[in-house]
Amino acid sequence: xxxxxxxxxxxxxxxxxxxxxxxxxxxxxxxxxxxxxxxxxxxxxxxxxxxxxxxxxxxxxxxxxxxxxxxxxxxxxxxxxxxxxxxxxxxxxxxx
Length: 96
Hints:
The chain is mostly helical. It has helices at 2-12, 18-38, 43-55, 59-72, 79-92.
């Protein structure tokens, strides 16, 4: 389920229509939620969900999902992603 959701996310990256993109992203996030319910120790699902959340500017939720992925497996530690996420959160909150 998580692999399917990730593949869907990768496939819509070239979509030009915002309405299609937003609808598909919401469906993909729901797919990740289902995958996490079915396999709560799937670090890939949490990490990929964080990537999708960041792509739709849901930075705080992306951080929660990222931290869950790292808790499950150190393989998901990604300092570059983490720093980018922190910068986006600060920017969204009006901090520098």
